[in-house]
Amino acid sequence: MLEQVFIVNIHYPEIADEQFVMQQEEMQSLVETAGGEVVAKIIQKRERPDAKWRVGQGKVNEIKRVCEQLDAELVIFYDQLSPSQNRNLQEAIGVAVIDRVQLILDIFALRATSKEGKLQVALAQNQYLLPRLQGLGNVLSRLGGGIGTRGPGETQLEQDRRLLRKQIQQIKQDLAKVSQERALTRQKRRNSHLFQVGLFGYTNAGKSTLINGLAAAETYEQDELFATLTPLTRTYTLPNQFEIALTDTVGFIQDLPPMVIDAFHSTLEESQDVDLLLIVIDASSPYRDRQKEVVMSVIEKLGMQSLPHLFVYNKCDLIDTTQLGIFEDENTLLLSAYDGDDLTRLNRRIVDKIKTIYVPVHSFVKGEDINGWLKQANRYYIEAMPFDEINDGYQIEAYLPVADYERYYAERRAIDALEVAEAHIAETD
After folding, report:
1. Listing from the earlier edge strand, what are the strands of the sheet with 36-45?
2. Alpha-carbon distance 429 to 427, whole Å?
């Protein structure tokens, strides 16, 4: 049986009506994703939160009464509760009370599959729990013990805090090791000089579906929030043998708690060195503009706003796109991740971006020297290389990463200088 949940949200003057409705709907989705059922909702308009209860005492009494009538097992506040507010509410209402931060962390705990993901979730949960220990009884004390934790010399609360701090320290050490391993993996990818594409977007915008369609990655995809937590990088090859590395990241949500972003910092680092950002937006959502603002705000906080980007409006098969008021241009594409033709169009647009990011090169290569170019086909975007029968070689039109371009022309200048010197010597002789 699903857990019966009561949702509480406060509508402050600075929150627009549309944004508030979006908050309500997202809370409902979060509860359902966590395995709960919303049996009641309560809204209060306030200028500012109450210091003791967050809502007014009258609302607290109303929540208690409704919980008793509906047998609600859990009350969830949209606002982040202080430790004292949490304790006051639980004592007054008589059922478990949590806030949206704890709800999100609970979902993350359900979704985390990798070692790093589990560690990140555990770190965020423990850091959130530490100031809220009072009143939790012996829950943590059963998890461990040792010197200084036995006997009457320390209260139970102090023991629990010591244990939690010890766990936090251990998790940080474990995460540091995993982070080093991930940094090495990122360095290997950079050294491979593959074109890097990062997928950013609101949760449930369809990023995993896109990476599955482009790279046949078979990553987990579901119509639910936070389906992907662990960063996934997959490569795929274009017809001319050029390789592209795609990295999927955790989806965002409005008012994402800072500690969640901090906990998943190493995950987000996966996309900080990319060549191109695909910013995926759910075109079918009535809140797509707000969701885009949220994602762009996170991108700005990560210092990635200057990276080349492409806005990808996904799920266009679910709506009448003429009602969107959004038109395709060099930075915008409308598609469905399930449509093969649309994925082909997306690849063409990625190639267009490659041509603006890389440096164009027009070069003649002798027939016997072509293998050197062919070996670099996975990292040089070779658009054409027709054979020139008259000169017995290939006329190459390609796009090179800046570093390769500089190295290539340094080598060409050296070869040209050598040929000039040899010609001069031959004339002198």
Report:
1. 36-45, 3-11, 74-77, 96-99
2. 5
Residue from 130, 152, 132, 149 nearest 141 by CA? 149
> How many degrees, rounded to 5, is the angle at CA 77 between CA 71 and CA 82?
120
Rounded to 5 degrees, φ, ψ at 219 are -85, 165
Per-residue pLDDT of the chain (429 residues; tens, 9 = 90+): 678 999 999 999 999 998 899 999 989 988 988 889 999 999 999 999 999 999 999 999 999 999 999 999 899 999 999 989 998 999 999 988 999 988 888 887 777 777 777 888 888 888 888 887 754 444 344 344 433 333 444 456 666 778 888 888 888 888 888 777 766 766 666 666 789 998 988 888 888 889 889 987 555 455 555 555 566 788 899 999 999 988 887 777 777 766 666 666 655 666 677 899 999 999 999 889 988 998 898 888 878 889 999 999 999 999 988 878 888 899 999 999 999 999 999 999 999 999 999 999 998 988 888 888 888 888 899 999 999 988 899 999 999 988 777 776 655 554 454 444 444 455 555
Q: Is the dihedral of CA 220, 225, 231, 236 positive or negative?
A: positive
Cα(224)–Cα(203) distance, integer angstroms: 8
What are φ and ψ of residue 407, in 5° steps?
-65, -40
Q: Say if residues 247 and 271 touch (Cβ distance below 8 Å).
A: yes
Q: Extract the tokens encoding 155.
A: 């209260």
DSSP 128-158: HHGGG-TT-TTTTGGG---TTSSSTTS-HHH
Q: How far out from the chain centre does Cα 125 lie?
A: 19
Contact of 283 with 317, CB cutoff 8 Å: no
- The pair of three-digit structure tokens given for residue 391, joined into one six-digit string: 């000169």
Q: E-strand spans in 202-324?
A: 232-237, 243-248, 276-282, 309-314
Closest CA to 348 of 330, 369, 360, 372: 330
State the Rg of the chain over Cα: 28
Token pair in block for residue 79:
């606002």
Strands 393-400 and 387-388: antiparallel
Q: Yes or no: say if 429 and 401 are a contact pair by the CB < 8 Å rule.
A: no
Q: Which secondary structure element, helix H or strand E, spans residue 311, and what is its range? A: strand 309-314
| Site of tokens 């200028």 | 47
Is the separation of the CB atoms in 28 and 36 below 8 Å? Answer: no
